[in-house]
Amino acid sequence: MVQLSINGKKVTAEEGETVLKVARREGFVVPTLCYHELLGSSGRCRLCVVEVHEGDRKRVVASCLYPVKENIEVLTNSDEVRLVRRTVLELLLARCPSAELIQDLAKQYGVSEVRYTPDKDHGKCILCNLCVRCCKDIVGVAALGMSGKGPVKKVGPPFDEPAETCIGCGACVVICPTGHIVMKEETGFRTVWNKKFELAKCSRCGRAHAPIFQLQWISGRSGVPLEELMVCQECR
Amino acid sequence: MDVDKEKLDEIILKYQRSKAHLLAIFQDVQKEYRYLPKEAVKHICLRLGIAQVDGFEVATFYKSLSLKPRGKHSIHVCLGTACHLKGGADVLLSFIRELNVKTGETTADGSFTLESVNCLGACALAPLVRVDDRDFGKTKAAHIRGILSGFTEQHER
Amino acid sequence: MNLSLEKLEKITAAFSAKEQAYEKIMRVCCGTGCITSGANKVFESLSEAVGHNGLSTRILVKKTGCHGLCERGPIVMLGADEVLYQSVGKRDLAGDVELLIKTVTEKRVADKLLFRSAAKKEKYVSPLDIPFYKGQKRIVLARNGFIDPEEIDDYIAHGGYRAPFQALQMDAEEIIDWVTKAGLRGRGGGGFSTGKKWRSARAAQGSPKYVLANGDEGDPGAFMDRSLMEGNPHVILEGMIMGGYATGSNQGYIYVRDEYPLAVFRLSKAIEQARGYGILGRNVFGSGFDFDVEIYRGGGAFVCGESTALMASIEGMSGEPRDKYVHTVEKGLWEKPTNLNNVETWANVPYIINNGWEWYTSTGTKQSPGTKIFSLVGKVNNTGLIEVPMGITLREIIFELGGGIRGKREFKAVQTGGPSGGCIPAQHLDMPVDFDSLTSIGSMMGSGGMIVMDERDCMVDIARYFLKFLTEESCGRCVPCREGTRRMYEIVDRICKGEGKIEDLMHLEELGEALRWGSICGLGQSAPNPVLSTIRYFSDEYKTHIIEGRCPAGVCKELTTFTIMEEKCTGCMRCLTECPMGAIEGARKEPHRIDDLRCITCGICYDVCPFDAIKIG
């Protein structure tokens, strides 16, 4: 067990827990963007930063990654923390002016104006990396990745071509916090990340339900015969 | 383009099929083809058992790697601090004008690729230009034509 | 083959006897700088001439590593610090080679090739008298310029590889104790206690353990590590063997920048030769301790100089740093205990073991013992590499070793610490240079780059330069650095173009503060330093750009015009000839005129005019 204090409140935690987890459990509000319960953290957005005092050492750290330590004092709303949060949100808003989530957070955390020329070519992508991790760790096809460095860093399928391994499951669409990733559905077809999937028609009700490619993949992975998978969820 | 898979496998074997040496493998392949062909990256990923996205991430992260074909000769104009103070940016501009390309691009005839590099470590001889494996120190705009002709003559012979 | 101390002495005796048989040894510097100036040709011609003239038994021509005086290359040294010749073969290769031969055969020192002071008033025969060398204390660089870096016997003959013999018979704890008491601090710029780091690495749980050498020297303007790796690769290996032994590691890696192919080559050769003698590999010196070193090349990413990014790169991934909430000495390379030190730090270790920690502390200051290698470049007369005791002042470095400011100009600022550092103005020239003093005035010593500026350098442009560099080199992982560096660049760029606002200065401070606290790694955390230090000391210059729309240094092109003052112009045609755009017209002895439409504001005319007849407006 570890004893620490958060905003003056004495709390107890288990060894190995992150400050974020403990802070939220204790009822403190700490915003995050690139953190997800199922995928863990990569410390990219820096929105979750908190101030930590360890002895006479002061640090500002990403609470989603920082492990609790005996006797540390955590401040979730200090001047430096608020400065970093405001700056992150103002910068993200300049990067993705159309992202509603960022607009809301910015307003909530006191960003009154954006003092930079807004970008036009990033859509709503804040490079949180959740889609990449989801596709790799949960779905397991690794159809998305980061490329480039610094100002030209971006997310997408490799070689900027429709990904060979993408099964059109749409998990990335669901996990993307800003709604940047778009899946288009038109009669019989679904397109995501520039890959067009023909949708299988349910062998019972005839409804177009899932990409054939995806069903083939699931069949291959699970051993369940394709004919079974061709029946849509509702008919089963 | 068709890559010689045997040659690639040779290189991979040279590095004991180690994922850790991905960058070195890419660099050796680039030396062969003068760039890193997409097909080579895919084959290497397959052989090493890594996802294509990971190979692509590495191939696009490091400035020394290029997925686009490069010219016969690589010009690197140093833009380190000392070179900047001694007119490195103007040297780069002169190359841009002379070759009619932007930084990072290759001339239409495929002879030269022009790039900038952040410090070659020969700061006392600023501004520095490296063409292939030759370094030219204290470069001035007036020297550019001479430097270039030294390399075009090479393949005219 | 199992090397013993006696064998080392035998090699030493044989090698020394061989060299002593010659009347004179001529050492041709073959570091990257001198090679660029033509050193390879000098070496070939000189060797040929020695053969031709039947002097092969009298004169030995040797290739050595970087002497440090790169700008005056190719450098050839005769004897042991007897005569130093500069710019050999630059204009007349055959003639100069002849002069070199005659120095021995006719005992005639060639006046033409002697080192001259900037004012050309003084000339020097022995390098020991040249102010550039006189003010140095060459401990780590002692053998640079004397030994052939591609010949292990030469290194051994000059005292090399004795330290591991002693160290491998000591207790690991004792070695760490010596290094700690010596006060060795990380020479890469961090300044962390090396002994403390080794102690943590030794205590860390996990196996295998690794020792790494950071040879990714990416600071623009710095080439200390390059010279060490090229000029004396063995001293680094020697240090790593002992570091491995002390921390409990059997595997070392040296990460070398891709832009240093000669360093990679020389280190590889050194490793090969060391393995051949049983100095690396199994059972080093028959001690039972196994240790080997492998080289990893970088891929052209500055951020890979950061410890966690470097490790990610070695693991075959892109070089993205990660938060260091658990130290890399505990969980580093492949999550194993890893001790990373800069190449220069490793190079210090053999000297501590050979001479003892007390000897080591007799140089430098109490908090920063030892020496530091600096690359002194920019607007000084003597540019190159120097090794000086810690605590020496900036003034001594710039005005004594550096020979003062070039031409008729005045000192304006010196940039230290590369993109993580700051600009220091004249008022602080008497500051001692060590790990701690410079941080108090807004800069840092950093890895050793020291870039001197004069009044023709614009501090706002310098800030813009560093921000552009950092924007491009940012790995892009975290929002503050990825988005913040480019936005800071945009603001300063606007100021340089005459579109600045007075609020920009406070905005830059605020954004800088956010990057300092919010970024994952040192690149983002220190990115604000160049711009904030220039605002601190040169706010007037910023204000002139913003309020008056003028660049006093004549650098920011949109805010500068060059005009020839008719009344001062003598029509000498100097500027006309040098103008790269042919933008100046005028007949001889008639006042010249600059065509503003063709002018690219490079300022060459201003810099070459012998009559101060051009003004910046």
Q: How would you sum up this structure, described in words?
A:
The complex is a heterotrimer of chains A (236), B (157) and C (617). Chain A has 236 residues and is of the alpha+beta class. Chain A has helices at residues 19-25, 79-95, 100-108, 130-139, 171-175, 212-222, 226-229, and strands at residues 2-6, 9-13, 49-54, 57-62, 73-75, 145-147, 154-156, 183-186, 189-192, 195-201, 208-211. Chain A folds into 2 domains: 1-120, Ubiquitin-like (UB roll) (Roll); 130-229, no CATH class. In chain A, the strands form 3 sheets. A 5-stranded mixed β-sheet of chain A has the order 2-1-5-3-4, sandwiched between helices. A 4-stranded antiparallel β-sheet of chain A has the order 8-9-10-11. A two-stranded antiparallel sheet of chain A has the order 6-7. Chain B is an alpha+beta fold and 157 residues long. Chain B contains 7 helices and 4 strands; from the N terminus they run ααααβααβββα. In chain B, a hairpin with a 2-residue loop joins strand 3 (129-131) and strand 4. The mean pLDDT of chain B is 91. Chain C has 617 residues and is of the alpha/beta class. Chain C folds into 5 domains: 18-129, Glutaredoxin (3-Layer(aba) Sandwich), CATH 3.40.30.10; 152-361, 3-Layer(aba) Sandwich (Rossmann fold); 371-454, Ubiquitin-like (UB roll); 459-548, Up-down Bundle (de novo design (two linked rop proteins)), CATH 1.20.1440; 561-616, Alpha-Beta Plaits (2-Layer Sandwich), CATH 3.30.70.20. Helix content of chain C is 39%, strand content 14%. Chain C is built from 24 helices and 19 strands.
